[in-house]
């Protein structure tokens, strides 16, 4: 079976690509299984040397540009942001090497009579199923975690970004021993077959519905899982906040990548006393964003990935309008391509899908709250719990608001961050397992304990 993706900026067909058959998927997994013992037998430093070779290739300006153009052509990300994403691959290798060193370190515990050595060993073969919105940086984080901890990897790129995934895998395969890195292509059926194949862990980034399907399939074999799923990140803005900084953050983080970001600002919960002024400043920021050809350096907002994704956003906007939401800026369809200009919508309520479901589009959605307690209730009133931010006067009261939000990652007067080896982690239905940190590396490892008696010798 073959698949012919479309350039979302032009609707022109990109070269067709063959999807992997069940036999081909099983073959790639089998080669990864055969290569794993020798790869696991290497030290972290030895594995790191292979990945430094990959980093050198990935950092080459010609390679960066090739990858960036592929991302932009396949999913519509403006070229300068695609280029920045491509550059992160090589830049992150050494940080992951350091985390892998820490993850591989054992420890000794026990009592006065028993000594217990705790070892950390690789699980085996890791299946990584990647999203289309960050088709390089997201799988790279998972692949580096798996490889550096001694696992071999089979990657399935999104069906929207297959060639980007293939280029990425080729770069790794050229640097690594045969079989350590493999790739399959396809959609949901091929991904489902990979999940049920002879793999030891599945790392997936995508929707809650697909994550639930993966969990059901993995239950049959008790396959380990690391899942980063949807988000409905709230931004709470309270009196005392720097409104210029808050407005800029709300606009940028709602609209970057056309809003197609798992940790974008999905809902701004603003205190009634400052709502009118924040709305005015957000609109001023939104009007500065340029929408257009993603291959142009000045473009800040490109098309959405598909006509279907655009329609999902339009449906939420239409429902919100019918339910009484105020449209401060109304987004417009543009073509050719799957363009949707930004919207700024106020008076969004929990009863609207725009206020409760993941939007994943170029929308700044605002709701007013009477106090911090109401803001926290609304922020926690969804099944999601990926990220959030709180903005206000620095101090214990603002810290208390942040502490009451049920999300894996919180920012205080700034966006969230996984800098410095912090875990990238969700809460509730937004996540299962986590990545990036030392503990995240150990998601791809199995602890093993070895106990022995401590011999005591009485003086003669």
Describe this structure in words.
With 460 residues, the chain is of the alpha/beta class. The chain has 2 domains: 2-230, Aldehyde Dehydrogenase, Chain A, domain 1 (3-Layer(aba) Sandwich); 234-420, Aldehyde Dehydrogenase, Chain A, domain 2. The chain is 41% helix and 20% strand. The protein has helices at 22-41, 44-59, 61-75, 79-91, 93-104, 137-148, 162-175, 188-196, 208-219, 243-255, 275-286, 307-322, 353-356, 372-379, 396-403, 438-441, and strands at residues 2-3, 17-18, 107-110, 114-122, 125-129, 152-156, 181-183, 201-205, 224-228, 234-237, 267-271, 326-329, 333-334, 339-340, 343-346, 363-369, 387-391, 409-412, 424-425, 431-432, 434-435, 445-453. Strands 12-15-16-11-10-17-18 form a 7-stranded mixed sheet, sandwiched between helices. Strand 13 (333-334) and strand 14 (339-340) form a beta hairpin. The longest helix has 20 residues, at 22-41. It is globular, with a radius of gyration of 24 Å. The termini are far apart.
Secondary-structure blueprint of this entry?
Elements: E1 2-3, E2 17-18, H1 22-41, H2 44-59, H3 61-75, H4 79-91, H5 93-104, E3 107-110, E4 114-122, E5 125-129, H6 137-148, E6 152-156, H7 162-175, E7 181-183, H8 188-196, E8 201-205, H9 208-219, E9 224-228, E10 234-237, H10 243-255, E11 267-271, H11 275-286, H12 307-322, E12 326-329, E13 333-334, E14 339-340, E15 343-346, H13 353-356, E16 363-369, H14 372-379, E17 387-391, H15 396-403, E18 409-412, E19 424-425, E20 431-432, E21 434-435, H16 438-441, E22 445-453
Parallel strand pairs: 5-6, 5-8, 6-7, 8-9, 10-11, 10-17, 11-16, 15-16, 17-18
Antiparallel strand pairs: 1-2, 3-4, 4-22, 9-20, 12-15, 13-14, 19-21
Helix pairs in contact: 2-4, 2-5, 2-7, 3-4, 3-7, 5-6, 10-11
């Amino acid at each position: 079976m073959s698949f012919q993706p479309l350039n979302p900026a032009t609707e022109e067909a990109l070269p067709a690509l063959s999807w992997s058959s069940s036999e081909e998927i099983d073959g790639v997994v089998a080669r990864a299984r055969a290569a794993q013992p020798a790869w696991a037998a290497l030290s972290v430093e030895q594995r790191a040397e292979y990945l430094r070779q990959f980093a050198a290739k990935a950092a080459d300006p010609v390679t960066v540009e090739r990858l960036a153009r592929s991302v932009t052509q396949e999913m519509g990300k403006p070229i300068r942001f695609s280029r920045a994403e491509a550059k992160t691959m090589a830049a992150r290798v050494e940080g992951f090497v350091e985390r892998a060193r820490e993850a591989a370190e054992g420890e000794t515990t026990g009592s006065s009579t028993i000594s217990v050595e705790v070892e950390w060993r690789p699980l085996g073969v890791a299946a990584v199923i990647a999203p289309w919105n960050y088709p390089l940086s997201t799988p790279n984080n998972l692949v580096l975690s798996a490889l550096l901890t001694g696992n071999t990897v089979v990657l399935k790129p999104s069906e929207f970004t297959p060639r980007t995934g293939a280029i990425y895998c080729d770069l790794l395969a050229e640097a690594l021993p045969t079989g350590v890195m493999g790739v399959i292509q396809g959609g949901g059926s091929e991904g489902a077959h990979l999940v049920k194949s002879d793999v030891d862990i599945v790392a997936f980034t995508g929707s809650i519905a697909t994550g639930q399907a993966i969990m059901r399939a993995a239950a049959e074999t008790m396959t380990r899982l690391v899942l980063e799923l949807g988000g409905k990140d709230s931004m709470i803005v309270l009196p005392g906040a720097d409104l210029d900084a808050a407005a800029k953050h709300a606009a940028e983080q709602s609209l970057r990548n056309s809003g197609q970001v798992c940790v974008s600002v999905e809902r701004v919960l603003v205190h009634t006393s400052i709502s009118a002024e924040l709305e005015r400043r957000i609109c001023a920021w939104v009007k500065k964003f340029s929408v257009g050809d993603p291959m142009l350096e000045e473009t800040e907002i490109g098309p959405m990935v598909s006509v279907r994704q655009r329609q999902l956003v339009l449906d939420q906007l239409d429902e919100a309008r019918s339910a009484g939401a105020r449209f401060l800026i109304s987004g417009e369809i543009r073509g050719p391509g799957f363009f949707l200009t930004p919207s700024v919508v106020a008076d969004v309520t929990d009863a609207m899908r725009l206020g409760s479901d993941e939007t994943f589009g170029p929308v700044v959605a605002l709701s007013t709250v009477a106090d911090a307690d109401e803001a926290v209730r609304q922020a926690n009133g969804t099944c999601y719990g990926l990220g959030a931010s709180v903005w206000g006067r620095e101090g214990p009261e603002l810290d208390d608001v942040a502490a009451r939000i049920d999300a894996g990652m919180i920012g205080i007067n700034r966006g969230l961050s996984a800098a410095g080896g912090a875990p990238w982690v969700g809460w509730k239905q937004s996540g299962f397992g986590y990545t990036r940190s030392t503990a995240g590396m150990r998601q791809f490892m199995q602890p093993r304990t070895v106990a022995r008696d401590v011999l005591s010798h009485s003086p003669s």
